[in-house]
Amino acid sequence: MRFDGVQKFRGPVAFFLAFMGAGSLAAQAASFSSCVATLKNQAVKAGVSPQVAERMLSGAQYDEKVVRFSTSQPEYETPIWDYMAFLVDPQRISDGKDRLKKHARTLSAVEKRYGVDKHVVVAVWGIESDYGQFRGDFYTPHALANLVCAGGRRAKYFKNELITTMKIASRGDVPAKHFEGSWAGAFGQTQFMPTTYERLAVDFDGDGRKDLVTSIPDALASTANFLKKAGWNPALPWGYEVRVPSGYNGHVGRRKKATLTSWGNRGLTRMDGRPLKGGIEAGLILPAGRNGPAFLVTRNFEALRSYNASDSYGLAIALLSDILSGGEPIKAPWPTDNPGLSRAQRLELQNLLNKNGFDVGKADGKVGPATREGIKKAEAKFGMPVTGRPAWNIYQALGGK
Question: How far apart are CA 244 and CA 127, in angstroms?
Answer without folding.
Answer: 29
